[in-house]
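Morning. Coffee machine broken again, so started the prediction first thing and wrote up yesterday's gels while waiting. Chain of 200 residues, entered below exactly as on the submission form.
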Amino acid sequence: QHTRGQSNLWIHSIQTALAARRLAVLRPDMGLGAEECFLAGLLHDIGRFLIFEHWPQEMAELDEIEVTCPQELVAAERSVCGFDHAALGYEVCRRWHLPESVCQMAKAHHLYGEARKWVPPEVAVLVRFVQEADCLSFGLLRNPVSSFQSDEDRNRSVEASLHILAASERIVPAAKLTEQLINLDHEARKAAAGIGVADS
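Came back before lunch.
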């Protein structure tokens, strides 16, 4: 039996993977493969899965904290656990001997704007893809597609979910992402139901 938080984490990971792959398809000029982006999106929060597994009391406390953006999640984890899921994810990916780009992405996926200048250039583009996909999914979990009353609602939700990314940093403009939103959410929830972690 999965908790609501665990189910949401699975849905979020799948949404992020699907969105990152879609971004790669929409922007082939940026030189990343769709499957590389899918893998990075799927694994970006691997550290959070470990917190669920090994620090359930802390995770339960984190689930009670209302966070409005991914940056606030990292701050909450550091406050409650003394570390964050990005640093933990980096260590796990290295122990699994995953590609260095994926390891570095796991560590850096919550570095935005100026902070990202410390990310190796060959990893920075992958981080940007994952960040945009991550923000999109974060917004979807807060405002599911079933809550949209109109296209305008959907557009506002996407723009709000991407607010921590400067317009110049975005891989694809918000308007283009709104076209993908309903299908992406449906596909992610169907996949999560297929592996028994959510209702379809």
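The mean pLDDT is 89. Going to sketch it on the whiteboard this afternoon.
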